[in-house]
Amino acid sequence: MLGERARSGGRTNDAELIYRALISDHDPEIRAEARFRLGMILAEQRRYRDAASLFRALLDEKPTASRVRLELAWVLAQMGEEELARRQLRQAQAAGLPPDVAIVVGRFSNALRSMRPFGGSAEIALIPDSNINRATRAATLDTVIAPLTLDKDARARSGLGLKIGGEAYGRLPLAQDTALLVRGFGSGLFYGRGRFNDVSGSILIGPELRLGDDRVRPAGGLGWRSYGGLTYARTSSAAFNWLHPIGHRSQIITDLSATRATYPQNRLQDGSSYDASASIEHGFRPRIGGSFTLSANRQTARDPGYATASVAGGLLLWHDLGPATLYVSATYRHLGSDARLFLYPKTRTDNFVRVGSGISWRRLSLLGLAPILRIAYERNQSTVGIYDYRRVAVDVGVVSAF
Fold it and tell me: 82-95 vs 99-111: helix axis angle to the nearest 10?
């Protein structure tokens, strides 16, 4: 091939031009070969994001091309996208691999680690929302004294918001299988009515350990949240994350955390929160995967009426549709409080349901960002009227393409 002769002769710029021209060829086999060879050139030049986009486009047309999927996993690992790289390995296993290739994949999976010392991701979206404050639509609430008329801001309000979120990390190697990992998280929902703005941030720091095939991350951190421009909560926490592969196509992720929270606007809520969750992710086919999560939470408080316990289950399924990825999700949570709040006649019991769907168009990505559309419906049925609400929200924005 002319492009390969240019590449082997050291004329990589000429080879790149040739392959880019062949990507538009009417023959799908020629297009596929050109994408793969150009992706390999870009990977050698450490243009990992561009290479990943080409490999991803090739897999959209040929989802069972295991060699391409393995190259994509390698490139993602170089980008620091370990979770996505592991997913590609599981999808490659779902497609079936020759024994000799499976051995190589197993070794790669065992050695897989985030290689970048720092990185991050970001998301920005417009959110039309039917209930921006997750509040009841009722005008009055029953209390032990008399019916209480709610202020308009305490009732459901619709609006158009701007969502901005992101994550950044830094990694300092300490030994062959140990690094110090620092992660920062931030998100904000901003509305024309500033009294509904919801902004939060947190930072976690701790070692990242490799124990055979497993990855362990103990950490400690601080967090804060403001609502309507006022400090809503301050937190300090200890967390433990454990990733354990199960065979070649599945992995289980376990999270444990203990958090101490103070609420400056209502000190009766001050207390501790204990969370536990386990999620199993599985690659069913080269284009189909999913996960199932079970979780539990215990919240203590100065006032037993604010103390709660809850259990939840969630299901996520995703499907590559060529140029786009579609997902559907569902969550159910049951919550009960320790005691009745003084003002309300019943002890709080909630049944919460959330169903959602979304699609991201990788084919339309620009500068590593892809457009995304998400829609979600929430319903919380509660014996305490102020917690009873319905909500429909739509996200239209851009996220990292990988």
Answer: 160
Nearest to 246 by CA among 291, 286, 281: 281
* pLDDT tens digits, one per residue of 90-101: 776 665 555 444
| Cβ atoms of 306 and 268 closer than 8 Å | yes
Closest CA to 265 of 226, 322, 307, 239: 226
Task: Specify the 3-state DSSP secondary structure of 30.
Answer: helix
Compute how many other C-beta atoms are within 10 angstroms of the C-beta atom of residue 113: 16
DSSP conformational letter for 382: E
Please tell me which residue, 178 or 401, carries the higher pLDDT value. Answer: 178
Q: Cα angle vertex 17, ends 11, 20, to 5°? A: 135
Domains in the chain (CATH in brackets) are 2-111 (1.25.40.10), 118-400 (2.40.160.40)
Please say whether the beta carbons of 369 and 386 come within 8 A.
no
Q: What single string gives the DSSP state of each residue in 151-193?
A: PGGGS---EEEEEEEEEEEEEEEEETTEEEEEEEEEEEEEESS
Q: Provide CB contacts within 8 A for 20, sequence distance 6+.
A: 34, 38
* 124-176 tens-digit pLDDT: 999 999 988 888 888 777 776 767 777 777 788 889 999 999 888 898 989 88
Contact status, residue 130 vs residue 158, Cβ threshold 8 Å: yes
Over the chain, what is the mean pLDDT? 84
User: Residue 3 CB: number of other CB atoms within 10 A?
Assistant: 23
